[in-house]
């Protein structure tokens, strides 16, 4: 693969601050260890509404009295409409900083936020419920699962109660990170290794990463099936509501130095080796996303691919949608796992992005869709397919070489040139016909860019903005600036840089996708 050498990691010189952060990061180990997998109960035969166990019926009656003034269970058509989210810290609101009473310790650390995505969509609903909990595994969601805290229900039980009191329009599930993947402890170890100068974590985790993903897929699948069973037992047909399995975005990436106001890793909380941020964005999160997509496809759920949603908005970027390493100093005593658990989670802006994507998905007929900020507008856009299906190599007809991002880097100004085809992420491209932009698979927020739309200009990578120098059209097998139809993208030789040249009909200007 055509790559440059990895840059040496840079360390801060503030030893006292590093020592405190190292101790704090070390305390995070084991933060999200899941409970043992529970065995689901047998499904109740269909036909009508199945009665709840007495303890859950008591909860249902109390909630009905709060909603309607009496405990009766109403016909579906007479109920208030509702949305509900289940899962782990990614959707609970962990990282936002404001939390519902009783979920911010000391005996319950679910960290459910009033600013979580489910409460902020544009979907018409009388009530919204967030029953997710930071640290949850599928064992805390499934039928017959285990409680995380004494005052919490198993999440499928919460769904069973609310499905009988309201008319559920959408169920959102975000789960899997705390099962075999153990994303929290892995992230913690990567940060700790950086702070203690122990070397990158990629060599430690990359060899077994796909096996971890393979292990979590059947657990997520069974969780989805259990939620279907809960809804059927509450009297819902499968088509009466939308069941969405949402994937996870990468909170980190390697392009933070393009931030003109980059304050340094210590200040913005981007603690990690540069090579680990590359592995996380380019390999770890995409593998996880493919696993979640498989689970959704195998269970008939609607799938939302958010793997690229935070591209351009990662930790330490100009407008970040995720929180970096964060220590809550309001907690007494030395930093522990609970004072650090908000680290590397979506912030309030990140949940606004989730809410926008969920709204667009709810209003779409697509069974699979992806969401990203395609032109750095700050507004996520939904596309009706999964990202894995749209990125393709662009092979030059004359040389047989593929368009290649030099060194698999994605910083602004990186050269684009020809290279032997190998189907790496730095050789796959997406032509967004609706906007006329050409995106690299490395990151959603980097596009082909001609600094000036004139003959002889090199075409490089640059932050996507949708300007005239980034807008192209496909004419046959040629790619031309939308504002200068007489110019074509040209690859003069197998390893030459990509340039604009006057269109001449030659194979140097023809690309097959």
TrEMBL record:
Q: Does the keyword Manganese apply?
A: no
Q: Which residues form the signal peptide?
A: 1-38
Q: Which SMART domains match?
A: RICIN
Keywords, sorted A to Z? Signal
Q: Give the InterPro entries listed for this entry.
A: Ricin_B-like_lectins, Ricin_B_lectin, SEST-like, SGNH_hydro, SGNH_hydro_sf, TAT_signal
Q: Boundaries of each Ricin B lectin domain copy?
A: 388-512
- So which domain of life are we looking at? Bacteria
Name of the protein this chain belongs to: Ricin-type beta-trefoil lectin domain protein
In the record, what lineage is assigned to the organism producing the protein?
Bacteria, Bacillati, Actinomycetota, Actinomycetes, Kitasatosporales
